Amino acid sequence: MTVVRQMIETWRHVFKLDPDRAISEEDLRAVCQSGTDGILVGGSTGITYDNTARLMSGIQRYGVPCVLEVSDLSAVVPGFDAYLIPMVLNSPDPAWIVGHHRRAVERYGDFIPWELLLTEGYIVLNGNSAVARLTGADTGLSADGAAAYAHIADKLMTLPIVYLEYSGSFGDAETMQAVREAVGHARLFYGGGVTGPDQAKLAASLADTVVVGNIIYTDIGRALSTVEAVKSDAAI
Ligand code: 1GP
């Protein structure tokens, strides 16, 4: 198992920061020193090399693991601890599964630090989210349909991460349960609508790693409260 795989296997809670959104120095410090296990840097729109590099150096002052979720080929900044590579499994457009990836390999070839890369099998389920609009993801899946994608990611593709993505809204309990049961080997990430301790605990009971994003920018106190809520959950 690679070092970066070992790292994410210990993650229970992570914050996701968007290079295209402003955060005060004070809030950035609070997020980085919250006791979270890591910071994901990523977003769907407006991601540039400069705003990504700026956010990375801001985070790295605090020593917390800092990982880039690659969404734009022009914004791949060296110096992150690891790079997460999304494949949106329920997109009808192969560009979001292997197409952009092929272009990246053609472009960067021998410079790719493969040992720092981890693939995420995304299942995108909130039709109103930017990521769903961008990728055209089939968000009308039943719980069984979502679980089928989870089996494919976990067993056929043996991906290290399955990411159940409800970005902006909290997930459907039946679907979360079905996906939980389908994932045996991969690390199961859940993200979407975790805005306080109650959702954080529920998500922590149904996923290995809980990702908290939006609330950082609207209510920093509630965002910080999710760390303890996730970590105090017995399930791991
Ligand atoms: C987004 O899964 C993350 O990619 C977190 O979702 O922004 O809704 O917390 P929220």
Automatic annotation (TrEMBL):
Name what cofactor the protein needs: Mg(2+)
Q: Which reaction does it catalyse?
A: sn-glycerol 1-phosphate + all-trans-heptaprenyl diphosphate = 3-heptaprenyl-sn-glycero-1-phosphate + diphosphate
Keyword check for Chloroplast: no
Q: Which GO terms describe its molecular function?
A: heptaprenylglyceryl phosphate synthase activity; magnesium ion binding
Q: Which UniProt keywords apply?
A: Lipid biosynthesis, Lipid metabolism, Magnesium, Metal-binding, Phospholipid biosynthesis, Phospholipid metabolism, Transferase
The subunit structure is:
Homodimer.
Q: What family, per the record?
A: Belongs to the GGGP/HepGP synthase family. Group I subfamily.
What's this protein's name?
Heptaprenylglyceryl phosphate synthase
Q: Which organism is it from?
A: Paenibacillus durus
